[in-house]
Structure to design on (663 residues):
């Protein structure tokens, strides 16, 4: 294992890959820090740039973007009280008040250091849990894969939105969109309307860019004319990391608990850092000796969400690498990135491409250190970037999206596709339908359908095969339980006023 | 009753019915075929749409932010500009189409109370188009359409 890890570090620390990772971390931090730009968009945009790179360089760049973007959200969460990403929502609860009290530098320092520690904790979890899980997953057949896909879909649908029906519908619609093209098993052409371009179905990249980036641009267009021109961010002076050793040591139990929450939630397919940061914040408040100070600017409330959201990074990679199941939209596009480079995640990955797996581990560790250093030294620049008005920034991003789509196969058709999915994504926003389940449904759909049909072939058309097989049976029961749990939660919430429910974020992510 | 959610539920049901009809047109084979899963998905979409409609019918109406006329106009103009940009990519080429799109899009998105700095927008549009084209054409070997400028740019 250590030999492989050393090989991984040797690959990642080569001048070319290291330079790419520095650039990737910077771009990721910028995308995380600028409200409206997300980790998904950063990875989607940079994915075409990795085509010409080898798998190690390409994947290292994507990981640097992932780590940078997840952490970058804390910058605008603290400086502007606007979460740069959903994973930094809870950071605004304490970051904003600390900024107003003149403790913005301390809040940033705390956020940066504990983001780093959260990432490192999750990498340790990834390195120790993933290989064992992969060995178990090797015994899986079509029944198990189908059941896991169904379980993942129900988790995503039930936990990412305010309305269960809308969440599940989004997942089902994503699955339906994935059926366009040539069907698995019997190769029947479906829903192509005679368009040759659709024979291979929609590309992951065009769907992602459309649903997230183009939809965001249309969303901004809706309110941009009535918005007041950008306000200049406050100047922040920072010395060291802005907090004392005693304060650091005092936060270790909080950080440990938050890291465990982040890892635990991140490892489950479908629940991402957007959820874990709020749960960690609530847990920190409940366990605090001074819960009354929460909301007035306390570092406990920065440590918890920032440790938890970054702890989700390595954790989300566990189901991705071992089972090929993306945990959220970011890992969904990471899966696309791996597949573009000819890497098929799953249990066999640890056997057939073990050096590459350890290169991924090394890239995660190097990215965590790069994030720590670059965020600390780059703060002043990031503050200036936040001042670029969105009405200038987003059209340029749209052009980059068009270039990314065109780069897939040099077809204008793919650019029309991102516009079509952009309109669909905007319709989702207006209807309060969450986007993440759609993406996960689109990604998991082909796996679920192929496994379903192969599983039925194996059990000679007997549907009970999915239930009598112990592992698939357990996952299908878990899927039903997760829906029942959500129904119970919705029933309880419907009896409470909205103000009492801090986790109800509406249909939009 | 929440009218918006009733409409959303109806649209979900409608999408399910349309998908079911398309799935019904697929060639049938014995047992589980290419239409089986789409058929299941379509029925799920219809059921979820109906659940949403029934739920919305029972929900209390809540004040929701409405999009103003100006917002709708800006969204429509933005969609037209994006569509125009894509349509113009082949005939005009990437650099010209991009510069034109960016300039117009900057103007459309500028907040109402801000006077648009036209020369700055023009400069930014041309510079951004040039930097993006050069980066991808010569940095990543991506053959973006050059249009009438092909003789100079390739």
């Amino acid at each position: 294992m250590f030999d492989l890890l050393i090989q991984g570090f040797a690959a990642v620390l080569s001048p070319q890959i290291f330079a790419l990772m520095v650039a990737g971390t910077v771009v990721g931090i910028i995308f995380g820090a600028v409200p409206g730009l997300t980790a998904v968009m950063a990875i989607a945009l940079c994915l075409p740039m990795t085509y010409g790179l080898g798998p190690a360089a390409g994947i290292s760049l994507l990981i640097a973007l992932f780590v940078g973007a997840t952490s970058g959200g804390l910058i605008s969460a603290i400086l502007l009280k606007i979460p740069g990403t959903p994973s930094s929502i809870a950071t605004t609860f304490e970051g904003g008040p600390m900024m107003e009290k003149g403790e913005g530098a301390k809040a940033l320092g705390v956020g940066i250091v504990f983001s780093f520690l959260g990432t490192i904790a999750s990498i340790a979890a990834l390195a120790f849990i993933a290989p064992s899980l992969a060995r178990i997953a090797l015994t899986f057949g079509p029944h198990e894969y189908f059941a896991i896909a169904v379980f993942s879909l129900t988790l995503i649908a039930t936990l990412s939105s305010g309305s269960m029906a809308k969440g599940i519908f989004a997942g089902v619609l994503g699955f339906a969109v994935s059926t366009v093209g040539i069907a698995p098993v019997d190769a029947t052409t479906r829903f192509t309307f005679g368009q040759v371009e659709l024979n291979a179905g929609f590309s992951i990249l065009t769907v992602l860019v459309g649903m997230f980036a183009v939809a965001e641009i249309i969303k901004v267009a809706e309110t941009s004319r009535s918005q007041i021109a950008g306000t200049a961010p406050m100047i922040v002076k920072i010395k060291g990391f802005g907090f004392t050793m005693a304060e650091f040591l005092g936060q270790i139990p909080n950080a440990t608990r938050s890291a465990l929450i982040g890892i635990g939630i991140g490892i489950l397919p479908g629940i991402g850092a957007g959820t874990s940061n709020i749960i960690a914040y609530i847990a920190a408040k409940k366990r605090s000796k001074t819960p009354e100070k929460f909301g007035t600017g306390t570092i406990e409330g920065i440590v918890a969400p920032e440790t938890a959201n970054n702890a989700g990074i390595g954790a989300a990679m566990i189901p991705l690498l071992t089972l090929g199941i993306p945990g959220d939209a970011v890992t969904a596009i990471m899966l696309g990135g791996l597949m573009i480079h000819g890497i098929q995640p799953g249990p066999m990955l640890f056997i057939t491409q073990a050096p590459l797996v350890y290169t991924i581990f090394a890239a995660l560790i190097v990215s965590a250190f790069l994030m720590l250093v670059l965020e600390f030294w780059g703060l002043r620049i990031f503050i200036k970037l936040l001042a670029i008005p969105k009405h200038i920034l987003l059209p340029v991003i749209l052009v980059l999206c068009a270039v990314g789509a065109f780069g897939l196969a040099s077809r204008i058709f793919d650019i029309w596709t991102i516009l079509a999915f952009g309109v669909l994504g905007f319709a989702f926003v207006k209807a309060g339908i969450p986007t993440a389940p759609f993406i996960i449904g689109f990604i998991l759909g082909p796996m679920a359908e192929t496994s379903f049909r192969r599983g039925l072939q194996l059990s000679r058309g007997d549907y009970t095969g999915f239930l009598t097989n112990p592992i698939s049976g357990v996952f299908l029961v878990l899927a039903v339980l997760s829906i029942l749990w959500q129904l119970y939660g919705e029933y309880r919430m419907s009896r409470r006023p909205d103000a009492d429910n801090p986790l109800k974020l509406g249909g939009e992510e | 009753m929440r009218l918006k959610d009733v409409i959303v539920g109806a649209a979900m049901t409608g999408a399910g019915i349309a998908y079911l009809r398309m799935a019904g047109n697929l060639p049938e084979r014995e047992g589980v075929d290419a239409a089986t899963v789409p058929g299941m998905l379509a029925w799920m979409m219809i059921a979820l749409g109906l659940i949403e409609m029934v739920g919305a019918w029972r929900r209390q109406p809540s004040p929701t932010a409405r999009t103003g006329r100006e917002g709708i106009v800006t969204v429509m103009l933005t969609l037209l500009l994006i569509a125009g940009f894509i349509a113009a990519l082949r005939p005009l080429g990437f650099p010209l189409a991009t510069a034109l799109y960016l300039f117009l899009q900057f103007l459309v998105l500028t907040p109402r109370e801000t006077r648009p700095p036209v020369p700055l927008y023009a400069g930014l549009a041309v510079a951004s188009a040039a930097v993006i084209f050069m980066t991808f054409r010569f940095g990543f070997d991506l053959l973006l359409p050059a249009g009438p400028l092909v003789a100079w740019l390739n």
